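Worked problem 6 (solution included).
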Amino acid sequence: MQAQPLSLPAVPEPTYGERLKDKVVIITGAAQGIGEAIVACFQAQQARLVIADIQAEKVEKVAAHWRERGAEIYAQPVDITSNEQWQSLVNLAIARFGRVDVLVNCAGVNVFRDPLQMSDEDWRRCFAIDLDGAWFGCRAVLPHMIAQGIGNIINIASTHSSHIIPGCFPYPVAKHGLLGLTRALGIEYAPKGIRVNAIAPGYIETQLNVDYWNGFADPHAERQRAFDLHPPKRIGQPVEVAMTALFLATDEAPFINATCLMIDGGRSVMYHD
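Solution. The predicted structure is:
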């Protein structure tokens, strides 16, 4: 008998409050997964949002969903590997809201290849999206944040930023670079009132992973195998990453800078699987 395919668990409704009231936030990778969860979380705390993704229809659908519920939110399709499109995105935020308080660099892509069989194109694509794209975003918002005398950048990194898993090259190389970028910019611009931090999610139950499990004869067993690798016997949910991003984006974390918060249920501190 064919096993029933998996689906994502129901997403809890965000808790509404005022922790980001009137803060202007740019979020990339906002059309799905962790990025979409960050949008839901931030709008519930009354942030004023400009969201972006290369998937034009999907990101506009996300914006329309929350706009119908009263959120101040604008969407724009963006290829984060383009300096010009980054500048257009930041210009939209300035035109609509007059400032940029927070940038969340969430857009990214998995590129897993054998090192000696990988094409130059795959290498460049991995770094263009996972490292250059974040740097271009930082470079686009930093002049505005410096002029304001305050700003906050959050880079969505990965457990691959500090740990190596065989078969995942060159993704961890780019993510190690993203962690270096976070630390370097955090130190460079701290005297200007700007904080730069990273979040390193581990195994998170996104649609991408559900699709992966559904490629097996028994997707439920494959998901359970992933769960069993973690001390809590489950994996993370996108909302758990979003809540951490929320904390860093608020005024509740004023002395957290140039660091990376790991969200992996403790798996990375285990001596072995």
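Discussion: The chain has two domains: 24-201+237-263, 207-235.
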